Amino acid sequence: MRFIRKLFIVSALLVIVAFQVLPSAEVFLFRLKTAYEYNASHFVGILQQCFSNDEKVLRSKHGGKFDLLYYVQNHLEKDSLTLVFRQNDFATFADRKFISMSDPRLVKLYSAHTVDECYKELRRLGIDYVFCPPYDLPLISKTKLAQTIADINLTQLEYSGKGYRLYKVLESPKSAQVKTVFAYGANKGEETSKWSVWNKGLANSRPNSISDPKNTPGIYINNNRTFSAIYTGIGHIALAPSRIFFDSAVNSRATYVLKSNVAGYGILKAFAVFYNRLGEYSGSIQLMNLVLDSDAANGHDIFAQFKFPPDATEFRILYAVDKGGWLAVRSLKIDMALQVSPNALWGVSNHNYHDETLTNVFDHDYLKLISSDSTSKTIGRLIDDYSDSQLMSMPETRGKILYTGRGNIDNAPSSAMRYKLVAQLSGSGLFELLTIHYPHASNAESSSTIVKSHGHYMFPGSKPVTMETLIDAPTGLADFRVAFKAVDASRLGRFVGDIPNECQAVVHSMSVFKNTNSMKEFTGEGTPVWEQVFPVAAQ
Amino acid sequence: MYSQLLSLLVFMVITFVMSSLSVYSLAYLAIKPDKEDMLKYLAISAPFGPCLISFAVYLLMYLIPLQSDFFYIAAVFVLLSACMAYSCLNFSIILEPYRQLLSIYHKGKLSKVLLVVLILLIISLFIITAFSPIFANDPLQYFLEGRYLYLEKDSSLYPFTSYLTGYYSQTRHPPFYSVLITWSYFFLEDPNITLFGRLISPFFIIYGALIFIAMSGAKHRSTALLSALATYGTPLVYMLVSVSHIDVFRLTTYLASACWIYMVSKKGKTSIAIVAGVAVGLSMRVHASAILLFPFLGVGYLIISQDKLSRKVVLSLFMILGMLLACGADYYRNIMVYGDIISGTEEVLDVYSIEGLNYGEYIDIRRDIDTIPSIILNGILKGFTDIGFFGFAYWLAGISIMMILRSRKFTKMELIYLFQVLLFYSVVLISVLLGKNFIIKNSRYFLMVQPFVAYFAAVGFYEIYKKAFYR
Q1: Which residue of chain B comes nearest to A101, CA vs CA?
Q2: pTM more than 0.90
Q3: Contact: B357, A34; criterion CB under 8 Å
Q4: In terms of C-beta density within 10 A (0-12 exposed, 13-18 middle, 19 or more buried), how is residue A214 classed?
């Protein structure tokens, strides 16, 4: 008995000690590991590391904010003035002039009643850039400043990384041409079919109420201290929405603007979730981390500007409410504006742009030329990031190749081999869209049949829906077929939900068009001219 | 590189050894304590050494600005030497406490193990702070202000408005930490290297451990070491020291001030009261939250001490006098210029008075203290529920207080510690009932009473340990 008592007491004491020691030990080991990794990869002496204030140690572990400050340090004009909402980071790591968010000179800016007034005040103070953190602050979201910096006519998104954003305030307002790619407004009776609900651990489902108990219009979700989210489009969050409700594929040179009216209480997190060419989840951009207080129960406007990385093909917008609260989305509008901004880099911590399909064919990473103007700047910067000071003139130098023209390297640069496929489909289950390309009969040296995948999609249900997609055909292969292949849903692993294992589909109609207009090779500008090649018109 | 290492050594010797001995000499001169109290006075004077340096440099840069680095180093060195002169001549006043310290630990297995663990804790923190640069937001602010004060060598510029590239001070409390960092830059001459400033925080753990050891004496040495481990090994405290935050200074000087009040109530001499007041005043210069220190300690003293009421009142007045000597000028300036004693929070700035901002509710929702159950569990009872930050200290302390109540009476020192905790929580309760969230919104403010809670937790831990191994 005495032994058991002793054992019990000792284990209790050990548990208490463990809770005290383990968090501290974790901090110690993590910091030691960071310091060691930096030392090992940069070959500095131990003493030298102690005596340095090198933010490169921080960049390697914290990314995001420090990547942005590195960009500010290296690319912003020497006499630029930035409005900062995180003063201490900016003052220490970036050597540029700034105005702190609590400077009393800004009282007039924060009290502005209209967006025009706010913008004029920004210009009067001489502010060139605005540095925003990923979380919201009342000074931004409760004043007209939020709307002003998200207005695409007044600002331009210069850099974004892990939610930290740098906006350039334009010297004079311009009128950007925008195209609406998604619109939902809670008119009474508007279908909830544009949205799906995601509760953690449970499969996605359609929202079954269009209004909350208080009869607030809009898509409503309630949260009882568990994660709860709604997102645009049908189908699983892990899969692309199959362009059914979106007007066009993502253009990575465009800036997207979100305007939304929500009502609710709690902490709202909004994300733009994007998918790659194969229709698989590729990443997400945090648009906001906003506090909805009691004023927001009657409606609150939110605005955001964002850009997608080069490998994004489709996207969804996801709203999540956290830690107890509720949310009703009343309207959502996504506009797209084409702005060719040479400095617009999407901050990726591995600084690596590569085309997914190429890795199936070759073993190297390719750096794709993405903008034509200020070409030398682009090359220079990319080389800086890789610490490689020579221009790469030979292919297969250190596994990285820079090549001209748009499109995959296994296709000829002329877009005469670009096709557009339009089909009307209905059914259920998961399928993969394939094209099978056959060699020309007289070309004896060409490779044999190539099968290309164009992604996984879900059949949309019993009502036929139009699907549109672009296909680039490999050079030297003359003929191709379009194929739909049924896919076993269990290969998706943990996101399997209510995707039926059986695939049943009907193709109501299908047409294939070929682009006969040769587009400008370097920039890809020019309008395609589509000529129908399937079904061939009767002679 | 090696000359910089030499500077580091000189910096550490002056800042931590010379200053502590100077403060102890001055205290000894004023008080002339008995032999057995010498270690205690050394321990509770030591943390105020760097405080004295910070105060002296601040005054020097205010009254005699724009001199060279060497001038300020030399001036402080002369000042400290003058204070230390007495103890250098009578070397026994340093030797005696040192001998007492060694005699405490020459036997006992558990205390040797705990001592080794404590030393490992301190070494681990020195390693982290040596190798990692500063990245947390508040420490960056202190280091920036230290850097700017070093560039200008004129402390009348503080607080900064639109300085250099546009820096605007968000808080206006007396610049203790920033001036210490400026002092460290005098030795380094390159304000972009933060190494010397980073190494200041782990030293205060040594001071804190010394206080616990000295106040508990030889009989309770294990409890003392456990208290030190419990206080500075609290996950939140460990993390804050590793990012070079200001809280460890607050913790240690608050603990020292509480022990000073205990010494006043034990001996009741006027000289002790004045020195205690000076100590409290220097603590109040560390951080604006220490404004709460004086009423706490005052009330605790009045209740605990067993002297006649008139004597107690007289001694309290002397304490107030000492306190005003040390920090009166700073707070007077705050009131004159800003109309507000605590100008340490953001809400006093102009931009936060814009209508419709609703900043209070924003904080409530962000920190999860918006509903009444949240206010109670996440706000007031944070010490009990937030185990990731505070560990089991509060739970153990509760158990041990019940054990003490059952088996024996509280000692005077324990009573003072208990009163600090109870008074702090009554202030928290009052602030919540008044609808203000400025204390409960941040776990760091609760660290003010962590040494006292950790002491009780250590007592409880040791009693439970004895039950397992010694009966």
Answers
A1: B351
A2: no
A3: no
A4: exposed
